[in-house]
Amino acid sequence: KKIIFSGIQPTGCITLGNYIGALKNWVDLQNDYNCLFSVVDLHSITVRQDSALLRKRCIEFLVQYLACGIDAEKNILFFQSHVPQHAELSWVLSCFTYMGELSRMTQYKDKCAKHADNINAGLFTYPVLMAADILLYQTDLVPVGSDQKQHLEITRDIAMRFNGVYGNVFKIPEGFTPKAGARIMSLQEPTSKMSKSDPNENGFISILDTPDAIVRKIKRAVTDSDNLIKVREGHDGINNLINIYSAITKKEISDIEAEFDGKGYGDFKQSVAEAAVEELRPIRERYNALIKDKAYIEEIYKKGALAAQKLASRTLSKVHRKLGFVDRK
Ligand code: TYM
């Protein structure tokens, strides 16, 4: 079987954007691949975090993976910081990455603008750690939202550069983005992406939101006054809702447009809200049951770390040997 790696940063809360862009596809792909899904805690500290909150949130994120339907028996689930090989490979890869290519990363530029008081080196080398995450496991496929495309491109470039010097050490990974929903937009500002750290709670839906909250946020979603359910350039608000509806119901855009021909935004929002409520209801219920089982959760991430370490150390040993480091014996 081919290999999948993906991860989510434990910041804010897991949104409908993360779910549609990534998590839902992990669930769909898990039977056909050997998968590793990580809570990428090392990445999250590029922005200051409260320690107690971060610890709690890491566990909550792992449990949300399970609640979404990720099978802990079939897949390797772990915290990135439990597998030291990520940081080790990251150092090596940073010596094969140019300052110029890192400074062209749009996410880096965005973060610099948002966190002007803390532009740390980790923010800059973030894509190198992400490359290490992926390349450590000889990953074939990386299911992510379209905002990660540039990071995947640099991962491939770093891998090819290394392979060019040392032979075939790394598998060159491919990205996987969903047809509908690769970029879910904010419900309040539909020209920017739905973000888990948006201070305006009406801009995003958490996958653990109650049905009431989901309905309220979708009803309040910003649209224009056109009242046409049709994907058209410049109509970002309604386009976004159509995308969300298409991703959840798996209906084609053209079928949705036909279904709501002659109806207005009110009717459509009602249908989108119902679809989202029903999609997320079982997730919230499973989450509320699972989060209480501390022993079970611990067993999963301990087992996951061991399994991931075993795979990661194979790649890392090979890398060290190729580089010319003395064998540990
Ligand atoms: P993160 O934590 O920002 O987001 C997690 C996943 O959700 C996707 N996503 C979205 N998809 C659609 N619409 C949106 N509005 C939206 N917002 C987020 C992201 O594309 C991502 O797939 N750098 C990564 C985490 C990471 C990673 C990795 C991912 C670290 N190492 C290795 C894959 C492989 C990030 O910040 O994702």
Automatic annotation (TrEMBL):
Keywords: Aminoacyl-tRNA synthetase, ATP-binding, Cytoplasm, Ligase, Nucleotide-binding, Protein biosynthesis
Motif position, 'KMSKS' region: 193-197
Binding site for L-tryptophan: 133
EC class (word): ligase
Protein name from the UniProt record: Tryptophan--tRNA ligase
A GO molecular function held by the record: ATP binding
Entry keyword annotation includes Transcription regulation: no
Known function: Catalyzes the attachment of tryptophan to tRNA(Trp).
Enzyme Commission code(s) on record: 6.1.1.2
Predominant cellular place of this UniProt entry's protein: cytoplasm
List of residues binding ATP: 9-11, 17-18, 145-147, 184, 193-197
Gene3D superfamilies: HUPs, Tyrosyl-Transfer RNA Synthetase
Sequence motif 'HIGH' region, location on chain: 10-18
HAMAP family: Trp_tRNA_synth_B
Pfam families: tRNA-synt_1b (PF00579)
Lineage: Bacteria, Bacillati, Bacillota, Clostridia, Eubacteriales
Localization of this protein: Cytoplasm
PROSITE patterns: AA_TRNA_LIGASE_I (PS00178)
